[in-house]
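Kindly inspect both lines:
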Amino acid sequence: MSFHPSLLTPQSKAKRMMLWFAMISMTMMFAGLTSAYVVSKARPDWLTDFSLPAAFHFSTLVILISSFTFWMAFKMLKADNAKGVTAYTLATLVLAIVFSISQWAGFNSIVAQGYYFTGAESTVTTSFLYVLVITHFAHLIGGIVVLLVVFTQHLKGVYQRKPLGFTLAHTFWHFLGFLWLYLFVFLFFLR
């Protein structure tokens, strides 16, 4: 929505830059965690026959669909279609909750296989898996809060005058989706 004059103010540009700094910081944190994962693979107690639960595969599909629905909400905002924004933002919020539930189911599946985060039944492999996924999940909680704020602000008609909040949420949500996709592919291929 670069055509909207409110997006060109110095304050808007500063807020977008702050979001980018935050996302770069998160990326660096996950780069450090995944680097530690790669280094730890050389340990003799590393699990080589562990596979990701099906719930994580499902959640990957869900987060990709949610990225599409939020992109559609953004497109509807640009077209000044309030009903479309409402429908697609609500769909994104529902998909975010489905993603969260599927992540929880994935953790339950790992526990059902006898792998725990800590204790005698834990392994370094599953501990890394828990840390990576729980850290992403914490960021996802922030994303869900952002979606709730965006939804309520949209219902109040805020984004027709000042679309910056929606634009920032749109960028952040796609970042979360990309981050999960990276983690999933990383964990799927680097066991």
User: Anything to note?
Assistant: Residues 5-39+54-189 form a domain with the Four Helix Bundle (Hemerythrin (Met), subunit A) fold (CATH 1.20.120.80). The two ends are 41 Å apart (CA to CA).
